[in-house]
Amino acid sequence: MENKRPSVFVVFFALCCLVLTSGCETSGVFDNLGAIQVGNFRLSESQVGAIKKSAQAMGKAFTDITPEQEYYVGRAVGATLLGRYQPRTEANSVQYLNLVGDSLAAVSDMPETYGGYHFVLLEDEGINAFAAPGGLIFISRGMLRCCQDEDTLAAVLAHEIAHVQLKHGLQAIKTSRLTTAFSIMATEGAKQAGGPELSQLTALFEDSIHDVTATLVNSGYSRAFEREADAVALVILGRAGYDQHSLVTLLREMKLRLNPQGLDFAKTHPDPAERIAELEPQLGEATVPPGKPQRQQRFKSIFGSI
């Protein structure tokens, strides 16, 4: 990827990342945050002009966030999640998870993101999976235990890739925050780093990250968003040659394991039975797709003792 000087918008997102990650050990999952000199950073006249044009051209809504900006939002959300959950770093597990995830992302309607897709296994017993904007996808050990084989693992990842493709995470940001941010960036007061405008921008972006994180961890997406992600997941699974019925198989297993009063998936997602009822009419007769036995053996060799 071409190494370009970050836009001013991205610099402010990076500042937010620095705030969120200070004192937070990320175990090497996010390295090389960027060579951005925050202390002495000053905006040039050309940058201020670009900001004004950008503020006028953009609709001051989440849909106008560029892939680069989405990447920085996702990194900040990821840093926040890694402050709560420990990532698994065992090489075989990491490589296999990303192999399956990348194969699914490649056949989605968003095969590439600014920073690429990255799949992280969290050492958490809760049944959970998160998709941060830009392609950072997290799956817990508890969720992995609901997966019987590679096809059901693929169902989890396909659903999360669908959230990225549909930009559901970005839609958690309150539009008023972006409207205020763009307005500030269009003013002459944004020329000098370190002033009150910068402090307000940093606070706005930090609040935006909290909007996304709170949606992922605390409240979850709307039923409509989950329905959309399930439908797209079926398409992705089919394109990749996985068993589309594996999503229903996964949901049935989750239904057995979830604690209705729990603080994980049961709190943030619709009841699996409701999702199964909506999915089944979309599925044809169950068949065993080519390669499923081999994929099941591969899954067991990596995650059989998880």
Automatic annotation (TrEMBL):
GO MF: metal ion binding; metalloendopeptidase activity
Cofactor note: Binds 1 zinc ion per subunit.
Peptidase M48 domain mapped to chain residues: 95-280
GO terms of biological process kind: proteolysis involved in protein catabolic process
Annotated InterPro entries: Mito/Outer_Membr_Metalloprot, Peptidase_M48
Record key words, sorted: Hydrolase, Metal-binding, Metalloprotease, Protease, Zinc
This protein's GO CC annotations: membrane
Named cofactor requirement(s): Zn(2+)
Membership in a protein family: Belongs to the peptidase M48 family.
PANTHER family in UniProt: METALLOENDOPEPTIDASE OMA1, METALLOENDOPEPTIDASE OMA1, MITOCHONDRIAL
Protein name in the entry: M48 family metallopeptidase
